[in-house]
Structures are given as C-alpha cells and as structure tokens.
Design a protein that fits this description.
The complex is a heterodimer. By secondary structure, chain A is of the alpha/beta class. Chain A has helices at residues 27-35, 46-53, 72-88, 106-117, 130-138, 142-145, 152-157, 188-198, 254-266; strands spanning 11-16, 38-42, 59-61, 92-97, 121-125, 147-151, 167-171, 207-212, 222-227, 241-244. The radius of gyration of chain A is 23 Å and the shape is globular. Chain A starts with 10 loop residues before the first strand and ends in a 5-residue tail after the last helix. The chains are: A alpha/beta, B mainly alpha.
Chain lengths: 271, 83
C-alpha cells in the first residue's frame, strides 16, 4: 500500500524579535525563525539582521524593497506579496520583525489577514516593543495617570482630544507631518507645526522627552529632555519617539464619586 | 563577523555582561581572542563603547568600529503609514 503524501500546505508566522539584539528574542519566536522553510526579516540594524540570518539557512532581508521616492505603501504591499508568494508555494514562512510585529507595523497585520483569507494558517507572535522599552527606560507606568498614543502625523492632521493629565506618546516624530509616505525625514518647519498643535494643550516651557530604544546591547537608549519650544531644533530620526509628561493633575469627577459612594452603601462588600 | 555577533549576543543575553563593568567581561574576553582584559574593563567603566568593543577584538578594529557607526549599519525602519 502506498503512502498518501499530502502536499505541504503553506503557513505564515509573523514574530517579534524585540528591540535589543540578544536580549529580547523569546524562545517561541526563535523557534519559529529556526523551523521555517524561509524567513523574511525586517530588522532595525544590520547587526540584528545578520544575527537573524545566523538562525536559519534561508533568511531574506526586506530592505531592498525600500527606495528613495517610492511610496511606503507600494513597498509594504510588495513585502506582503513576497511573503505570500512563498506561503502559496507550500512553504512554512516566518516574518521576523523588530520590536512587536503587531505594533506600528502594517506589513505583518496585512500578511496575516491575507494568508487567513486565502485559507492558510497564520499566526502572530508578540515581541518586546519600543513601547515596552520606553516604560522601562523612562520609569513610567501607564497605569499611574493613563497614557495616550498617537502616530505623529495623524495627531497633526486630525483634531484629537488630548488629556493633559495623562502621558502623551507620539510615535514617528522624525517624519511628523509627512503625508506623502515617501519621506525618510521631515524638517524643522514640520516640527514647528507639531509644536503649534501641542501648544494648544501644553505650555511652551513644558519639558518633553525624546526617546529611542537601544537596538544593540552596547548602545544606551536615547533619553533627551527638552522644552517643547525647543523641539524644532532637535535632531530627530525615524526611530525617535516623543514622550510628553502630564501637564496637569487628575481632576476628580465629584458626581461620579457621589454615585459610587451611594453604590458602596447599597451594595456592601462580600466577605 | 561571527565573532562580533557572538559577543553582541553574549552581552545582550547575559545579565552580568550587560550591566556589570567588572570581572564578567573576562569570560567573553577569554572565550574570544581578546587580550588586555584590564583595558577592556576600564573602557567598559568609562562607557567608551566603541573603544570597548575594539579592545575585545583588536584584530578586527575597522569592522568593529562599524558597530557604533550608525550611518553604515542603520536600516530603514518599518514606519507605520499615515492614514
């Protein structure tokens, strides 16, 4: 009797490799990388990329898809297609992305959705993100006052309700104001405008923090405190994040406080 | 190249190497090709990172200098597209 060999069905796993080389890669994510037939890697640093390349015999960098003047949407669509092409051919594909593959990462989400829509197994494995590093390095806990996160350009273009009693984290401030999806940086004029938007809520002398996680263990994180008014003069890269501390105390809602007290009286604690 | 990655991975994954500027570097130094462990440790203490790495593998100075050269080693970050 012959053995019935089913053709291998392709699959996709998008994993996070964390921010710092050697420090953040979880065992399961590493296993996905090592056991895949082909790995596509988007790393934060050439050393990180070479590190991942040492974990599997077929690791392909996603870097060549980038080009000056090319829309990032075109780049990202091509990345998804490159990964899906191997999935469709029956390969176990792993996408290894720096940080967390599901945070500020269009490609992994799109690839997982596409694979599932086409009937393939697809999985996302979390990693340690820049946000996680920020909490640790700046010593802030989002539970203390609350914490709001926005993509910097979206924050500028749309009217958002900012709570000045909570932390505000703006991601991708180095390209704040870029609506073309083609720039790799935006200049002081764009940041002037960002400061103008922030000044609707915060005093110009409010201290803000420019943050960048360490991608190599021999690096230190960037933690640079500046006044809001000085932000346009600061050198900012695509990896930098702006953390704005609360500018006012939490305000008690007296009405809700009274109603909670009523509930406390009516519904005594269960022992 | 592999030596550089090995040492970066060692520093990244070992708590003692990551944060302690004394003694612990000796094991990395001994397992690699480095000499002058005292000088390495001195540079760790001074936080002279580029020099520190160069001291660990002095025979590959130029390549190792690139570890700290962001221009040559940096990648294009995966920026979330504005919507």
């Amino acid at each position: 009797m012959g053995i019935c060999m089913e053709p291998t069905k392709g699959s996709l796993s998008c994993v996070g490799i964390g921010m710092t080389l050697g420090s953040h890669l979880a065992p399961l994510a590493r296993s996905y990388v090592e056991q895949a037939d082909v790995v596509f890697v988007a790393a934060s640093n050439k050393w990180v990329e070479e590190w991942v390349m040492g974990m599997n015999g077929d690791v392909r960098t996603l870097q060549p898809f980038y080009a000056e003047g090319k829309s990032r949407m075109e780049t990202y669509t091509e990345m998804v297609e490159a990964m899906m092409s191997e999935v469709r051919s029956g390969k176990r594909v792993c996408g290894a992305f720096y940080g967390h593959p599901g945070i500020f990462a269009w490609v992994p989400h799109k690839a997982v959705k596409t694979a599932r829509a086409e009937g393939f197994f697809a999985h996302m494995e979390p990693g340690i993100s820049a946000e996680d590093c920020l909490y640790a390095d700046l010593g802030l806990d989002p539970g203390t006052t609350g914490c709001q996160h926005f993509e910097a350009t979206q924050f500028m273009v749309y009217r958002r309700c900012v709570d000045p009693s909570a932390w505000l984290i703006l991601w991708q401030v180095g390209i704040a104001g870029d609506r073309t999806l083609k720039r790799f940086s935006t200049g002081a004029g764009y940041r002037d405008l960002l400061v103008e938007v922030l000044a609707r809520t915060y005093p110009m002398r409010h201290e803000v923090i420019v943050y960048r996680a360490a991608v190599l263990p021999i690096y230190q994180p960037r933690i640079e405190r500046v006044l809001l008014r000085d932000l346009p003069d600061i050198d900012l890269g695509m990896e930098d994040t702006l953390a704005v501390p609360p500018a006012q105390s939490l305000i008690i809602d007296e009405d809700i406080g009274r109603r909670l007290a009523d509930l406390d009286n009516r519904e005594p604690m269960m022992s | 190249m592999k030596d550089v990655l090995n040492i970066l991975e060692s520093v990244g994954s070992n708590a003692a190497l990551r944060h302690a500027p004394t003694g612990s570097w000796s094991s990395v130094v001994d397992s690699g090709h480095a000499l002058q462990a005292d000088e390495v440790l001195a540079n760790v203490a001074l936080k002279d990172e580029q020099h520190m790495v160069a001291m660990v593998f002095p025979f590959e100075y130029e390549m190792l200098a690139n570890v700290a050269s962001k221009d040559e080693r940096q990648m294009v970050p995966m920026v979330f597209p504005f919507e």
